[in-house]
Amino acid sequence: MKKIIVLLFIINSLYGVMINGIDWQDESINESYRLSFIDAKKYCKKKSARLPTVNELSNLQENIFKIRYLEYDYYISSSGKFVNFYDGRVVDSYSHHFAYVRCVFKNYMKNGAYTIKLKNGAIEKGTYKNGGKNGPFTIKYSNGDLIKGTYTINKMNNAITLIYKNGDILKGHFNHGELFGAYELKNTNGYTEKGTYKDGKKNGPYQIKYKNGDIEIGNYINGKKVKNKIIYHKIIKGYLKEDFIITLKDCDDVIYKDTLIEINLNTMKIVEPENYDYIVLKEIPVVYIPKDKREINIESSVKHFHNKDFISFLLTTNVKIKSISYNNKNLKITNNQDYLYKTKPIRKKDSYNLKLMLDDGSEIIYKCVDKDCTLKQKVEID
Q1: Interatomic CA distance for residues 219 and 40, integer angstroms
Q2: pLDDT tens-digit series, residues 138-152
Q3: Which end of the chain lies in a sparser environment, N or C, as judged by fewer CB atoms within 10 Å?
Q4: What gap in Å lies between CA 93 and CA 80, rounded to an integer?
Q5: Are 47 and 55 spatial neighbours (Cβ–Cβ below 8 Å)?
Q6: Which residue, 288, 294, 310, 297, is CA-closest to 366?
Q7: Would you say the C-alpha torsion 369, 373, 376, 381 has a positive or negative sign?
Q8: Residue 72: which of 81, 62, 82 has the closest Cα?
Q9: pTM surpassing 0.70?
Q10: What number of other Cβ atoms are within 10 A of residue 145's Cβ?
Q11: Which residues are registered as beta bridge partners of 133?
């Protein structure tokens, strides 16, 4: 993660020193001048300049000169208030009634769009208003990442949007160039992550919501996941055995027999058909998959370990599987996601039978050689 570096651009100008777009009277010139408010205005006017505002003096004190001044060093502002350069205090008056004067040259007050190349090579674009950065800005890094944010009177607001080169979008907050506080990351693969940054790293509880409805929860410690678990998206899908009546506030509606329906059991909402996705169900209809519409896809992978081959299976289906056996030995299903079944690796044999028991009592047997499986026998129940 890149750090935002807010640079103070100081260049020599015709009259003095340009700092953050404001042309200040050179400090070495004005140190001997301690004037009243009225005399200070006259002094600056004679130089075709003006007195700085409280904010301009405060920004100058905070960012540039704080360590150079003594406790009694005050500068006078255009409103007649005094800014202490030792600790930043702003007072209406103080015992001497005279203060140092540092004028701002009017003709060099920047306004309008700017483009700045930062020391790290990033390009910042934004707008000057009355010499200070104000309004929306962007910082584009050489790797393609882009930051969007805003300035208010030359101070960067904490809230930013970070758009990564790959299209991921993070909304969060910056503090001294590091991410901190709550964030939301929207990934191009369709998942959304929410959590907290501390000292530029993810720390504390997080939640990831995947496109299919699965939810991952856990904790980050210095950017690493610990104690995370996935709450799987529980669904049921199939064809309605009977007409399904939905009771609405003003009327009833009917989803007809043999319509393909999918229901999220976590939210009790209809996923398909989409025109009913706003409805929260009070009961689950009876569904089935006809024999001619059953789909089972088997993928296998082999890993070599201690001079032995181990095989595992990934089954994607539109029917629910009760158990999977390998040469009559039950395999452990390592995940708990409906219609997706992954098995624990087992010692591979050159040929074997793979038997599936479905929730409805149907039995399907495959004859497999190496990683290739062909249907051997079906005992199906409608």
Answers
A1: 59
A2: 999 999 999 999 988
A3: C
A4: 8
A5: no
A6: 297
A7: positive
A8: 82
A9: no
A10: 18
A11: 128
